[in-house]
Amino acid sequence: xxxxxxxxxxSAPRVDLLIASLLGxxxxxxxxxxxxxxxYVVRYRHNSPIKRTxxxxxxxxxxxxxxAATLAIFFGLFIWGxxxxxxxxxxxxxxxxxxxxxxxxxxxAEYPGGQREIDSLHVPLGQPVELVMTSQDVIHDFFVPxxxxxxxxxxxxxxxxxxxxxxxxxxxxxxxxxCGTDHAAMTGSVTxxxxxxxxxxxxxxxxxxxxxxxxxxxxxxxxxxxxxGGHGTVRAPSLAGLYGSPxxxxxxxxxxxxxxxxxxxxxxxxxxVVASYQPVMPSFKGVIGEEDLLKLVAYIKSLGAGNQx
Length: 309
Prior knowledge:
The chain has 309 residues and is of the alpha+beta class. The protein has helices spanning 12-43, 61-89, 195-204, 211-221, 225-228, 259-267, 290-302, and strands spanning 96-103, 106-110, 116-118, 120-124, 128-135, 140-144, 149-153, 159-164, 169-175, 187-193, 246-248, 254-256.
């Protein structure tokens, strides 16, 4: 059935081959079991001349060989699938990041340049694209059958998904997790454009500034600059050069300042307190929406050493 779908991403042929192998091996095992059943049904049917009184010598060699062979085959398929799964979890360093916010019942996409669209996603041909996704309400699932990619989108955290579209065109986007009464209407499209077409599309879409620029305005509006700007009376960690760097915590552990860490530090500041600092930052949970959080994260990511408002 999946072979009727186009293989529009770099990972699609590998996923199809894995599924075909799983199906093929399963059919072979099923066929062998059915063959043996039919063989014994015919051989030991009623009025069969086969003697049933002779006691055969008991041996486990056949059972052990059969079990070991099937175990080795399926374990090999498991390792193959695990490696493919891990590869699809690790986006390349040069991947274009697009932010997705799911909401009953729509997909909202935001690009680094500040472009926005609903129920539609435009991506460049042949370039890795990393989606950073979160939900504003319930669990959704981002599913593009032609790319053979899907990922649950959970409220309260970031999930990532990446792909490289290798065929231009327009492909269906679905939510494959029941999310409410209009779940079936939560659809969209992914449009794959050549690089010149993609650049023209970006230029044609109106924007009020990049995500980082909009995040800078929010940084001031929500009062973050009062403590983290370096001019306040409250002693707070510097955010310059924070993104991607190790952060020592008060419990002795160390975390990397990625998108999830920054988001959680805004919403749940007392969960991971930076070493040598007091847990005085208030929580912004319920105050800042998911779209504004993405902009704040983008702004903090843009801060280099000595480049803080």
